[in-house]
């Protein structure tokens, strides 16, 4: 999978490295700012109130 | 091109054929071919072609004969036989794949290898994502919440400066207040957690509000009022205002600031301390700062309405009665004016779990009216370590 992506990246080696970094950062940002905030309330880690 | 890629495959066969150098020059095609069947099994088919293209391989690493043979004999057949041979050789030693692995048609083994590799990569990726989630939960939400808490504090300071305080606008402080949900209205200081421990308390306890800071349970008492001033806060991430709530001991100060006053609450005696609270001279209850702190249990048979209010308790999440005006005794009929002014802090327990709730109860021991002529005056309790 990652090998396939690497081969699909165009350009010379430094160019490929830059593109790969950008891709990784984009995925991390997507996870941190979209996926995790959405999924977090559904997980039982951090409920602090009592209901009664 | 063929000679370059061939040697690796040939190497496997090399040991048994050390005498090779002497052989090739002697007999061009037929003789050595018989010695060759060893490498041939590796590419199970086409023995006919094998005998031609294997020869150069054996000779490859050695000096002179190599270039002679392939040129003469194999020119026409090489290209046809090569891709397959290369594909297999290339898989075995990955480095070679770079120059040769682009073109070959994938075999069944290739496909299996590829899918196993992909599954492996996906699993490693999933592990990294889970790790990233932990980092998010413990650190990133802290940064995000710090900004929100900062904004809430600035907004509160601004309102206090301009004299707008919903707590005061309600006339008689209490009954008819109208706090906007999500709006800050007080600050909490816990000197034990350091001089810089200060959080703006917001009205409401939804997830969104709690991201900005500790939240006041709607409908419970306000700071300083008789009844129970109940506040929830995160223990992990999101600023984690109540991270160390479990370290609070009896008589530790919980200071709440509003626009008009400072209210000093102190943690009630913990469950195990009630019995001997003031028994000996060095008992906890006789320390100066425990001056006005005592078990709420009365001498009545059943201990009175406040019999079950320890300084700290751990309960299941459904125990809503811990934030009742008379904690753990919601049916008690104590007139509002006679209710003890209490504070209750709730957070999750144990850390990283929603299994239980950690509850801390304290009672009001002192109220310092703010002197409008001397802004910036701080109550002495804030300096307690």
Provide a short characterization of the protein structure.
With 52 residues, chain A is mainly α.
How would you sum up this structure, described in words?
The complex is a heterodimer of chains A (52) and B (385). Chain A contains 2 helices and no strands. With 52 residues, chain A is an all-alpha fold. Chain A is rod-shaped. In chain A, 10% of the residues are buried. Chain B has 385 residues and is α+β, with helices and mostly antiparallel strands. Chain B has 2 domains: 2-105, no CATH class; 133-383, Sortase (Sortase, Chain: A), CATH 2.40.260.10. In chain B, 32% of the residues lie in helices and 15% in strands. Chain B has 11 helices and 9 strands. Chain B has helices spanning 2-5, 7-13, 23-26, 30-35, 47-59, 65-74, 78-92, 97-100, 108-161, 166-169, 207-210; strands at residues 184-189, 198-203, 215-216, 227-232, 253-257, 261-267, 312-315, 341-349, 356-369. In chain B, strand 2, helix 11 (207-210) and strand 3 form a beta-alpha-beta unit. The longest helix of chain B is centred in the middle third of the chain and has 54 residues, at 108-161. In chain B, 35% of the residues are buried. The chains are: A mainly alpha (52), B alpha+beta (385). Chain A binds chain B through residues 1-3, 28, 31-32, 36, 40-41, 44-52, and chain B through 117-118, 121-122, 129, 132-133, 136-137, 140, 205, 207, 210, 215, 217, 232-238, 242, 315, 317-323, 346-348, 352-355, 357, 359. Chain A: The chain crosses the membrane at residues 20-39. Chain A: Keywords: Membrane, Transmembrane, Transmembrane helix. Chain B: Residues 15-27 have a biased composition (Pro residues).
Largest interface chains and counts: A-B, 18 and 40 residues
Distance between the termini of chain A: 50 Å
Distance between the termini of chain B: 79 Å
CATH class call of the largest domain in chain B: Mainly Beta
Structural class call of chain B reads: alpha+beta
Number of separate strands of chain A: 0
Number of helices of chain A: 2
Q: Please count the beta strands of chain B (DSSP E, at least 2 residues each).
A: 9
* Shape assignment of chain B: globular
Question: Any idea what the CATH superfamily of the largest domain in chain B is called?
Answer: Sortase
Taking Cα atoms only, what radius of gyration of chain B do you get, to the nearest Å? 40 Å
Helix content of chain A: 55-70%
Provide the number of structural domains of chain B: 2
């Amino acid at each position: 999978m990652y090998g396939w992506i690497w081969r699909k990246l165009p350009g010379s080696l430094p160019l490929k490295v830059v593109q790969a970094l950008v891709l990784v950062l984009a995925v991390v940002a997507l996870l941190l700012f979209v996926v995790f905030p959405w999924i977090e309330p559904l997980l039982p880690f951090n409920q602090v109130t009592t209901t009664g | 091109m063929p000679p370059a890629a061939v040697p690796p495959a040939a190497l496997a066969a090399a040991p048994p054929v050390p005498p090779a150098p002497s052989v090739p020059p002697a007999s061009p095609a037929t003789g050595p071919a018989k010695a060759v069947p060893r490498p041939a099994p590796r590419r199970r088919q086409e023995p006919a072609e094998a005998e031609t293209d294997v020869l150069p391989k054996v000779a490859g690493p050695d000096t002179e004969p190599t270039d002679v043979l392939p040129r003469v004999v194999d020119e026409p057949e090489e290209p046809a036989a090569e891709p397959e041979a290369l594909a297999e050789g290339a898989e075995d030693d990955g480095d070679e794949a770079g120059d040769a692995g682009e073109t070959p048609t994938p075999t069944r083994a290739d496909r299996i290898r590829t899918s196993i590799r992909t599954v492996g990569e996906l699993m490693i990726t999933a592990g990294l994502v889970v790790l990233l989630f932990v980092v998010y939960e413990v650190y990133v939400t802290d940064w995000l919440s710090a900004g929100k808490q900062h904004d809430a504090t600035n907004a509160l300071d601004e309102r206090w400066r301009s004299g707008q305080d919903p707590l005061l606008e309600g006339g008689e402080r209490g009954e008819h207040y109208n706090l906007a949900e999500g709006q800050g209205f007080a600050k909490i200081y816990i000197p034990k957690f350091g001089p810089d421990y200060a959080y703006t308390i917001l009205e409401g306890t939804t997830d969104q509000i709690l991201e900005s800071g500790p939240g006041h349970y709607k409908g419970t008492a306000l700071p300083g009022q008789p009844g129970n001033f109940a506040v929830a806060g995160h223990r992990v991430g999101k600023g984690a205002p109540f991270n160390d709530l479990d370290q609070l001991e009896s008589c530790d100060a919980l200071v709440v600031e509003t626009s008009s006053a400072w209210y000093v609450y102190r943690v009630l005696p913990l469950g195990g301390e009630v019995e001997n609270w003031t028994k000996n001279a060095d008992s906890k209850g006789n320390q100066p700062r425990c001056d006005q702190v005592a078990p709420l249990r009365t001498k009545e048979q059943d201990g009175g309405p406040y019999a079950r209010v320890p300084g700290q308790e751990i309960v299941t999440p459904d125990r809503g009665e811990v934030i009742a005006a008379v904690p753990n005794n919601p049916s008690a009929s104590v007139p509002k004016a006679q209710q003890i002014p209490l504070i209750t802090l709730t957070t999750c327990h144990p850390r990283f779990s929603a299994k239980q709730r950690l509850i801390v109860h304290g009672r009001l021991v002192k109220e310092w009216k703010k002197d409008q002529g001397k802004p910036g005056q701080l109550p002495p309790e804030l300096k307690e370590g």
